[in-house]
Amino acid sequence: MKKCVLGIIGCGNMSKAIIRSVTSDAFKQAMRTNGIKFSVAVSDCEISKLDEIREYASDTFTDNSDLVACSDYIISAVKPQAAESALKGLNFENKVAMSVMAGITLERFKDFIGNTTEKVVRIMPNLNAKIGYSVNCYCHEGLEDEEERTVEYILSAFGEYYKIRESMMNSVTGLCGSGPAFVFMFADAFVKKGVECGFSIEAARELAFATILGSVENVRAFDGHITDLVASVCSKAGTTIEGVEYLKTSKFEDIVKEAIDRAIKRSEVLERSL
Asked: Rounded to two decimals, what is the model's pTM?
């Protein structure tokens, strides 16, 4: 059985979500089924952060070079502004270097690691990694087929994976990276209105979340255009049509698109500045 050590540089919220997912018994068993004995190592300059994840990681380090030396695949999960200092001088030769750092292109990432490997992966996950439902879009350079499959195995531990062109990364950042916040805002408005209608906060939350979850599953199961689903809820002179017409006249669709577009443009600005 082939051994594979995933090293993670940085121990922030995204790292913790990934660590908990890839160290689960279910994931380790899935990797063994694919002929891989999988383990995780983590590095961070703050010992207190390492203390929080010692029960999950096989090894922890305060020196990033020690982490890289013992790992086969390495995820850089530090803040983009700290990437250069965190990665400088590290030798990634014969390793697969992966980045979840927003705004850092593959070319820039290779600059940070001194071009010590041609095997580089750029990943855009989202906050839902915390519960195993992240959207993980990735692009890469230099990976062999087996290495790419291993990357996909890792990404599948905390969500779904989608291979895209790097030129689409900023769009993915606005759509999927920022998207959860927009959904949360919709849910929050739903809950607040429920409370205004006289429901307890607990009841309003349950009603809102059950409605949203059921609607998402309805969309997933529907092969047609989503607007047809909207129409199917709207009876002529009924209740739903009143609310739908208000959303249309208020340009609800345009507002959502503009929010996403602004997030995309901000991602483009950050990419140019890093």
From this structure: 0.92
